[in-house]
Design a protein that fits this description.
Helix 2 packs across helix 10 and helix 6 packs parallel to helix 8. This protein has one domain: Rossmann fold. It starts with a strand and ends with a helix. Strand 6, helix 8 and strand 7 form a beta-alpha-beta unit. With 235 residues, it is an alpha/beta fold. Helix content is 37%, strand content 16%. It contains 10 helices and 7 strands.
Length: 235
């Protein structure tokens, strides 16, 4: 699968320098260019260029419409391993090609909509790869409304962000958390439930409910907010 990579303004200044990495995942109708279209990289140029945030690499992988998760195998689901692909193939490839710090404490993962679901689910299913989570308008479908490849019952719970936090609270405590959702987003109540669960477990989290819906206009308006969060968390 293709991926795009943003190299920070100072990348070429020192051939020995290494950088943290932010993995930003697209939504269900997007591609590895979705965040580019929303102005993420232009904002990165501005914020890193004036030293508002530290310099880091941004990786933009492509996951089609597959929820960035290892699918179940059934009569209609073929068990494609999109989660394993992301965690075990994309991350090592980025570390091999670019001068990154190849450690969890120097990696963040974020995403919008389908990618926001994944930004929680992936670190909970593949520990030791990322340390910072950013879920932007996560699409948190109920079991009966979810794609069949997410499974039902225990299979669904093993892929569901809230169920994973409930099942693995000690792992959840090891991450830095950000969750945001528009105030008229269709999944704001589900996103707030994750915030509430983290808070009830004593896990500090950045929660933001901005004005807006589940759309390009909303995400474009907040790319700088997201980058400033990742800059703080990766500093």
């Amino acid at each position: 699968m293709p991926f795009a990579v943003y190299l920070p303004p100072g990348y070429d200044a020192d051939p020995a320098a290494r950088f943290p990495t932010l993995y930003m995942l697209h939504g269900g109708s997007g591609s590895d260019q979705e965040w580019v279209d929303y102005g993420l990289l232009k904002a990165a140029d501005r914020l890193m260029g004036d030293r508002t945030i530290p310099q880091f690499v941004i990786a933009l992988p492509q996951g089609d419409q597959e929820y960035w998760v290892d699918h179940i195998t059934s009569k209609i689901d073929n068990g494609e391993k999109w989660g394993t692909y992301m965690a075990k193939e994309v991350v090592p490839e980025i570390d091999k090609r670019y001068r990154t710090y190849a450690s969890a404490d120097a990696r963040a993962i974020g995403g919008l909509s389908m990618g926001g679901h994944a930004a929680i689910q992936l670190p909970m299913n593949f520990p030791g790869i990322w340390s910072v989570i950013g879920a932007h308008s996560p699409s948190l479908r109920a079991e009966g409304d979810a794609p069949t490849y997410l499974g039902r019952g225990a299979e669904f719970a093993a892929r569901d962000p809230l169920a994973l936090i409930v099942a693995k609270p000690d792992l959840a405590r090891t991450y830095t958390w950000w969750i945001d959702s528009g105030d008229v987003d269709p999944w704001i109540l589900q996103a707030a439930a994750i915030r509430d669960k983290l808070t009830s477990l004593g896990i500090v989290n950045d929660w933001h409910s901005y004005a807006g819906d589940h759309s390009a206009v909303y995400w474009s308006a907040h790319v700088a907010d997201y980058l400033e969060y990742y800059g703080r968390a990766l500093r």
